Amino acid sequence: MQGITNKTHSLLLQLAAKWGCSVEEVLQRFQELEERGEAHAISLRVQADLANYQTHQIRLELANLWGSAVEEAEGQAMQRLQQSRWVAALSGDLWRWQAFYHDDSVLDEVEADGRQHGWAEVDQARLAAVALLPQHPTLPVHVLKLHEGQRAVFFRRKGIIRDPDTGFQMQMAAVTVLGWEHPESGLALYTFYHWDGSTVLSTNRQEIEAG
Amino acid sequence: MNAEAGFTLGLADALDAHTSPLTIPSSAPSGNGTVFSYYIQLALEVTVAAATNILNRKIKQASNPATGLFYFWKAAASYVQPSSGNKPADSGSNGNTPAGYTAMSTTAASYDNASVSANSTGRNGGFALLVGACDGTYADGAGSATAMPNIQILYDEQ
């Protein structure tokens, strides 16, 4: 909470604008999260907003906030983001998949010894279910159970923002996607999992973009 | 896009084309004419090898640029050195889209959907050629302070 209360009123105004609420409601959200011991969630939210910042106005705000030149503010923003333990999560690995086969064997995206597997290595013919294992304690486990003729789909939707005026570049917050497709009927259903745990269910694979 | 320190769109084959800036049509702000930049070739670059594949590469602009300024793009499978010979030819009319290119939108458009393994470092997938343009409706004057929208490259990794 200390990091939040030290922010200036202008940043609160930005957050209020981004979240569609008043400054008082922003502060109330901070307080509620603090009381629930979830201050890190607001930290993640703020960092995501910083990661999504795209306008010169916000760069000016950051420069004002940190008492530095605009170029230095950009550098500081990148440095702070890079130093944050959330950057890796925001870039796409909030969940890792685990494939369960009908013979009770399991294939982990990341093995205990660190070996990694790509989704292409999953044997769809033997696949019974897929679990998404959260890499943060506040996020839930998700499980997809497959039925006859369904193929599981998994991917992380990512993006890169490039400011051509400054060369500033950063990763967008990734969206983790788990779903199924039924080739015979053409039916499909995808669930898009955002970094804050919210989800969107859609039959359209392209429904949600990163960020 | 790789970690190079930025790019500019101008009238030269250079990441930093400040010494050869895009010119404002002499007819601006009320006449007809469009000046196009050399193209910049954008591509995803794998910097740490992984077991995953990358696919569904798309490009978009984060917002619309100022009146009279434009991004155009087109897909290309391989690198071709930009030159005056392959720069889109300037037009005598406003809002002209160069042949083979598409006006950039705030809605993502696919430039390469192929699934390519990320198991080695280097470029992954094809290129998106990016061109900047200024036409006779531009009225904000010369200088480097005119901001262009951010470019977003989107992709799936699995």
Could you explain the architecture of this structure?
The complex is a heterodimer of chains A (211) and B (158). Chain A has 211 residues and is of the alpha+beta class. Chain A is built from seven helices and nine strands, in the order H-H-H-H-H-H-H-E-E-E-E-E-E-E-E-E. In chain A, the strands form two sheets. In chain A, strands 6-5-7-8-9 form a five-stranded antiparallel β-sheet, with no helix packed on it. In chain A, a hairpin with a 4-residue loop joins strand 1 and strand 2. Chain A is 34% helix and 27% strand. Chain A starts with a helix and ends in a 9-residue tail after the last strand. By secondary structure, chain B is an all-beta fold. In chain B, 0% of the residues lie in helices and 35% in strands. In chain B, the strands form two sheets. In chain B, strands 1, 2, 4, 5 and 8 form a five-stranded antiparallel β-sheet that branches. In chain B, strands 3, 6, 7 and 9 form a four-stranded antiparallel β-sheet that branches. The mean pLDDT of chain B is 89. At the A-B interface, strand 5 of A face strand 3 and strand 9 of B. Strand 5 of chain A pairs antiparallel with strand 9 of chain B.
